[in-house]
Amino acid sequence: MASSPNFVASCPKPTYDTGCTYCQIPLFDQDSQIDLTKPLNGTKSGFWKHLVVFTGENAHDWPSKIELQPGTLVAEMNFHKRTLLSPFHPVVVSNSSLPSPVLTKKGHFSVGLYPDNKLFQISLQDVPLFMASHLKPETEAQEVYNPFVLKAAQRKEVAVKEFPSEAIPNPMVLICGHAKRDVRCGVLAPPIAAEFEAVLGENRMLYDPDLNPNGWKVGMISHIGGHVYAGNVLIFDKKWAAKETVENTRGAVWYGRVTPQDVQGIVQETILKDNVIQELYRGVVE
């Protein structure tokens, strides 16, 4: 049974200026305001697995709906999800701007699966078999028949196999920077990312291929829900995927309404001390 995380009520204030710690948050149009009033508790989408595609692409180049872009892994999985996945075990598939941490085979995509903390390489042709093998539980609850509800697409039965994998080598900070999906994410993500790089660098924790190959990587992630809570920040670390840690993190700690001024506090409390900051946390606080 997973234990409850350690919470701190609020985010510590910054103690130094990296150059953009106190950058002014821009004003948004009336229909693109950040919701500063609604409690963040429980605003994170509920899911069972989170699959992150390492694209190496600029987040500003992603179309508004990446799931409709032909030839992409997200689109292929979106096509099959209704017939292959369990409605009781939702799966989130996201793009990341980070490149693959390993050399990817030709015609394959590098993907990280959380909370498993496993790195896979799969092709578009592999998608149905991979989904059946790694994105469905071995057993699941049975749907209750309801004659008044039209049944969704009939789910296919696909043979399963264990795809080769390795541990994801680096912890990550991913900020929702899906600019063409929502202006708030597109504007806020770059200064937040720059601040994380500066603060992690100051603490000698930032990834460097030569000096710190196991360090923290900082990048963008595609739409995860909750534009009104921008900036949205996900802290991926294998410690949050471990069985003895909190269950509802599902491999990452989700924060909302993050600004550059919050970054030093997040690094201090969550990355260094494994504490969850309650005022920013989008998960469930019992």
From TrEMBL:
<dbReference type="InterPro" id="IPR036249">
    <property type="entry name" value="Thioredoxin-like_sf"/>
</dbReference>
<comment type="similarity">
    <text>Belongs to the AIM32 family.</text>
</comment>
<dbReference type="Pfam" id="PF06999">
    <property type="entry name" value="Suc_Fer-like"/>
</dbReference>
<dbReference type="InterPro" id="IPR009737">
    <property type="entry name" value="Aim32/Apd1-like"/>
</dbReference>
<protein>
    <recommendedName>
        <fullName>Altered inheritance of mitochondria protein 32</fullName>
    </recommendedName>
</protein>
